[in-house]
Write the structure tokens for this entry.
Amino acid sequence: MWIAKSDVGKLPKNVTELRDHGLTIAECDDVGPYKKIVPALEQYPHDVIVTADDDYYYPPRWLGALVAAHAEYPNEVICHTARRMLFDGPATMQPYRSWPQLSTGAGRAVLPTGYGGVLYPPGSLPAETLDRPAYMALAPTADDLWLRWMSALNGVGVRVVSEHRPSIEWQGSQRQALVRTNLHGGGNDRQIGKLVERYGLEMFRD
């Protein structure tokens, strides 16, 4: 578990005690939602990396399903939850809220949504993924969007593995604050606009 250095002292005892059961707690810079992957990419650049949000319950088989799909499709990003990206034209996209949610499917115009868990195979993300000035300027609160643009630049598609489970948030988590900013407050659309301006959309055409 990666945690900002300034937050280490705030961890409750019932979390720190999980070290006795195999959990590693490591300090990192506070880069917002990127804490869950950027430090891991820096430390394990040649390994499979699976991300998970810290504000959801995960069922016993969620990781095994991702790994099993990776064995079958080793060159694709694997996820449990996603949205189908919709386009208005060659250089514009429809609003994020109009993108339908997916429980199965595959392709380039698929955006993994991180709360379901996402598996990134080795080499799926280019070195530019770690460019902190870039991701903090273009998508500071939308790591899902940044990571999808980065993997698409590498020519990597996405596959959704259906798990048929309800999404259950940890009580008192901060996820709702991010949802209000990104989804209901139009934050995703503003960040999408910046990414499109910088990188374009051609890499999402199937």
In short: The chain has seven helices and ten strands.
